[in-house]
Amino acid sequence: MAQDLKRKRANEADARGVKKRQLSEEPDDEIVDHEGDDAESAGASGSGDDEPMDAEEDLGGEDEEWGGIDAVEEVEGKENHRAGGKPKKPPTGEEVRSIKEATELFRSSSFKLQIDALLPNVRPKESRKAPLERFLLALHECILSTPSVPPQHPLEAARALLSPEPAQTPKGKQAKDKGKAKAAPTPVPIAVPYPLPLPTEDANWKVAFEKPSEILLVGSWANQVSVKAKDGLPWGVDIAVEMPSELFQEKDYLNGRFFHKRAFYIAAIARHIASSSKLNVELSYESANGDPRLTNLVLRPKNDDSPNDFTKLHAQVRIIPVLPSSSPIPLSRLAPHRSNFRVHNADSSEDPAHENLPTPLYNTNNTSVCYAETASSSSACPEARDPGLRRCSGTIAYLGEPARLWRGKAAVLEMLAMGEEPADKVNTKLSSKRRPLGKGLSSYQLFKAALDFLARYDFANERIFVKAKDGHRFPAQDYYAHHDVAFVDSPSLVNLLAGVPLSSLAMLQHDAKRTLQTLDSSSPSVDPFTEVFLKENRDLFTRFDAIMHIGLSSATLRHPSIHATLEHGSPAKALFASLDQILRAGLGPRVKALSLLHPSSESRPLTQAHPSTPSTIYVGLVFEPEHAFRLVDHGPAASETESEASQQFRELWGDKAELRRFKDGRIVESVVWDVKTADEKAYIPVMVVKHLLSRHFHIADDAVQSWQPAFDALVRLPESISSVYQSARIPAGFKSAMTAFDDLVKTIKSFDKELPLAVLNVSPISEYLRYTSVFAPVALLPSSASLLPPCGQFLPTMEVVLEFERSARWPDDLAAIQKTKLAFLERIAAALMAAKEGTLARVVVADALNASPIQDQASLEIVIPQGWAFAARIWHDREATLLDRLINEGVNVPKALQADKPRTAREREDALEARELYVRRFVHAPRHHRAVAALCHRFSAFAGTVRLVKRWLAAHWLLRSHVAVEAVEILCAHVFVGGGGSETVPGSKERGFAAVVEFFKDWDWTAGIFVPLYEEKGAAAEAAKSSVVVTAGHKGVWTIATDADKDGHMWTANGPDNIVALRVKAIAKATWDYLQQGTESGALEVKTLLVHPVDDYDFVVQLEPSVLPRYTQNVVADPTAWARKGKFANLQRQDGTPVVRPGFDPAQLFLDDVKRVHADTLRLFYDPIGGDRFGAVWDPSLKQPRPFRVMNHFSSIPVPQESEKAKEKEKALVTVNESAVLSEILRMGAGLVKT
Amino acid sequence: MSLSSLPQTISGFTVLPVSYSPKAHHILYIRSHSGPSKKSNDKGKQVWPEGRTLFLVNVPPDATDRELILLFQPTYAVEEEPESSSSSVEDSDSSGDHSDAEHPRKKRKLAKGEKAPAPAPKVTPLLPPTSLRILRKTGRTAHIVFLDASSIARALALPKPSKGQKVPQPRLWPAPDAPLGLAHYTALYDALRPPLDVVRQHADSYMELYDYNAAERKRKLQRESKYRKGEAIVDEDGFTLVTRGGAYGQAVGGGVGVASRKFVSGKTEEAAGGKRKRRKGEKEKAGFYAFQVHEKKRKELMDLKSKWEEDKAKVEKLKSSRKFKPY
């Protein structure tokens, strides 16, 4: 019942909408405010006479089980309550209805409110429209008063317009006309934008000008669906000027003659407007999509405070000449299969087939000129039919905006012209196969339906015809045969997608899918509204997995064709079309979407006839991770060697194509990409593009710039060091590290006899064993260590956790447990050394000062014969219980039952700390390790992303000391599994990195996030939604919750604090801005992203690079630090056989000490990965003099007192002794600090 | 800051500038140690001999005992060496991120063992006594015990300007006796990797001591307790105390571990209460009376509205923060 009524109501609303529409259309320039109107007409329609009925039905609808009668009762009941003097009134029926509508028809009520709040901001301001209306009237008048130009030869006419002199008119009458019109100043020279093929001298037809038969306001402005453009572009107001039909002849469809006439027509209007004093405007040409055939005139106001100065509205008026419906050009000549070019040159005349190639694009352009009027009238009717639509199409157009993007600065996708048009028509008028959508849908529902259409529609293979009343004009087969894509609207004139490259459509589809997934995502950490409508989605680095910057200056087609040039309108357009086609064919399933981005065709001065062509373009790829990195492209089978398919294949790939026999016996044409390492696999798509570009467009490799290698270099050792590793055959890399680990596990597990307890589990907890360390792990043998310079001898240790079978024989005392561990480790060490020759195992104990005796402190350092180093620790689960007992003791237990001696607060603190360490090291770390390792397998780009992000944070002196590596891993995982849906998952590490930087830039950490890092998804996410409670301690402000860690402070308990978190944000913002700028200008230096500014630090200490074992990992490592000093290249290093010290990093130890010693004085920042400098900031409060205390915790110096008297009375003041602290640091770092 | 402007005393402390290098001066504050403070009544704290102890504030973090001794030695006659390293530099920091070094603890444990009549096994030290310095937190305090009381006065008079000079000359810090910087870290790294046999001996001897102590404690308990293992614990009124573990679980009688885990964690009462309440709630029928239905519905509507208002307010807030101006 409720449904029926709802529909009925919607119908009423429709009727009202129609009425209003008609009213508003009659006075064309009086525009009624519709903003709130829609909301109200939908929501508050019942506020009039039909209130009781509405209320009733609504309540009935809410609660079905009670039926109609009770609903009435309910209303009465409500009245009673109200009478009963309750403090709060229940909502009225009306309110309930609008609330219900908001919640049920939209994603959520807040979503609707947000849309409502957004829309006024993207619509033109009513108050500023009036001058525009006045201007339009004046313009109308002005155009109508344009003097007619009698027919003349096209070139002559053009010359006349170009000359600054008054036109030398061949005919007296025209001279008079011109003379009359030109009381105005000397006219500006104007070039007539004749498109190719240019008219020749022997043209036997004439161009002329007559005043337009009609002038109409068309397009989105007239339909009130226009939305604000990006990048501060002005609003567009489109005016269709109907050229009188007598100017045209039947044969005008041939060889672009129609367009020539149109070009002259527009030039004539331009001439008149420029010379008329009434309109104070700037005139320029603009070609839609850079197609010179579709050149229009653009008028921008000059700021002069006259009544029709609409500068404030920030709009521009575009004059588009159109053909009247009664034009003499027969439409049948413009069907897709018709050929309308007669190319007369030597080549083509020999080949008659070539001459008659169909010219679908040309034809479409031709027809589209006739289209404007009908389009506007037809799009008006669906508007009227559904009041929700206008809002919706506003929304869509708005969303289309991110897609249509690149407009101003960066580049433009060609599809953008169609952003609005097809999109909003799809909703209501439908393709023959698609059923119409129901009426009365909310704008959100329509919006989603449109997205759904875009996301699912198979552009390449389907042709869409909007249902028309009287069938379509041209048969569908024509479209299938001659258009790549087709979307024909109901007047059946134009293929709206003609000339739109398939790749752009794929990109649009990709974006639509992404948006849909965002809208559908249930993840609590994603706000779909912000994500969809507010976030900038067109940044190159987060949008594409690979970006290439291509210089087109040397680009030439392999098979240049005049026909293609004419068909596409200009050589540049033809080049783009064939680029698109070839890249698409070459990349095939490797990419989900591919897009060519070039600067949009900007408006140009009237003296420039043709749009300028871009000299560079960007190619953006979105990888399909399954196929993107495969090594072989298979072609057709060999059996059909001479078939067309194999020829095409060879044509496409050139000499790369070869016949190969595969293991399964097939012999097929194929292309094999050779890569040296697994890392280089990521380059393959770019290699493909480069190869195709050089083969088909003669674009040299150095004209193609991609940033992948530069990013890769950030996580690689410098060449001079890595070559040593290679030549000495030292094992390196994640794979061999893991193999070594597996071997070690096997060996340890085989020690049944040597150990009193069997080893149950060996779990790795090191980033080196889960692909996420910045540098791949390396092994180091004492024998080969001498080959490496002292500043490149860092041997990372990989931490593992040993778990023994349970036993009751462990001592029940924490300190004793630690000693027992020592005994165990000693046994293992002995067994290991006995089992394998060359293994070195040592027990490492903790520095006495830093570890309390109850804390896990001993580890076993194992260096296996291949040179890999491990550090093993023992997990004993009884420790947790004992620690808990220590901590909770005395809380709930009655005094009588307590242990004999009461614990001091100090012991409790120790226990707390020990337990934190225990939980982190033995409970969370192995689990985290498994989850991250699994993610690395699931997403090929994940590991690379983490490595880049770590490198970036480290280079900015934040990693490890302020941001734990595990926290970084979880945050990176957020980009991959955080609920954006599969389409947002980065396919390359560069995109992943950019996404993480963007996340850091926008992250409001006070809210905390939830990352479904561990497999169980849905239920866990729901549960966690409520449990992300932000408890910002002063030490760590980030809350990163996972399923295993509901509080979200496991890895962020020790930082970053508020200051550092703000710093992360600031650095992310700077990095992001640089990425943006760099890609736009094409001069991105990747290393610059990691250059850390040091101006903010109070002092920066330079370390001596040659003694730092990790220095070679420095971002800007200076090779002279490890250059051989001696005379002879083959001389061994003097320092004798170097001792390999696994994991020894004196800089790290030193800085940890400084940090600890001066914890209350300084805040330290340094790069743990090969940094050779560190910076520090004084605690600002210490600079103020403060009273002397015994326990000041900083090195102080008395402040001199002003007078002797004061000294006696007041507390003596001290302040921080900066020079003493500095000298202390120098002392502690003797030999490390460069003096 | 020039030294001339330094006051000579501050809050009862004598200011003693110390120089490491010509440029930088570290400031030590010294005073003779006076009486036990309230805190030092705690057991475990050492009592410093009154009159012979010098109290130092703001000890350089990298100072070793030997360096401290040397600092006060040259101008004066024999002084008693201050107590062993870690105890002389008193750990007065209550924040607790540093524990005492291992040695004193073990010593204390040893001491405990020594009280027993039977000789306790000795623990082999894990780390050889090295001369490595221990870097402590900055701004700490220390006590130095002199041989006789007169030395104190002379020590306190140190900063007084000598004849002919107006400004007190800073004392030169003695030459370092332990490696610093890179050498320190290298030595420390190697020291933390003791030979395996030492580790083994240490672990074994420690466990021996542990067992010995455990046995000792047990014996002591048994001596003191009037209850014997395996015997029921009966109080004056004749009630038998039931203990967990029975005859074999606990060493002696006396309810050490009687409380169940639930009891300890304090959840028992809550859980029980919750259960009781739920049972009560189940009995009440939700939609039995018409007014209940009305109330429920009304509440739903009210909730709906309030949520709506909330959302509205939220969006208003966002609006005011100009969030809706995307570009």
TrEMBL record, chain A:
Protein name per its UniProtKB record: U3 small nucleolar RNA-associated protein 22
Family: Belongs to the NRAP family.
Chief location of this protein within or outside the cell: nucleus
GO molecular function: RNA binding
Keywords attached to this entry: Nucleus, Ribonucleoprotein, Ribosome biogenesis, RNA-binding, rRNA processing
Domain Nrap protein: 237-365, 422-535, 541-698, 712-937, 939-1091, 1095-1234
Compositional bias annotation for Acidic residues: 25-40, 48-74
Cellular component terms (Gene Ontology): CURI complex; small-subunit processome; UTP-C complex
Residue span of region Disordered: 1-96, 163-184
TrEMBL record, chain B:
Pro residues bias locations: 118-127
Gene3D superfamilies named in the record: 6.10.250.1770
GO terms for cellular component: CURI complex; UTP-C complex
Residue intervals of the Ribosomal RNA-processing protein 7 C-terminal domain: 192-327
Signal peptide: none
Chain spans, region Disordered: 79-127
Record domain Rrp7 RRM-like N-terminal: where: 10-188
Biological processes per GO annotation: ribosomal small subunit assembly; rRNA processing
InterPro entries, alphabetized: RRM_Rrp7, RRP7, RRP7_C
Protein name (record): Ribosomal RNA-processing protein 7 C-terminal domain-containing protein
Organism whose genome encodes this protein: Dentipellis fragilis
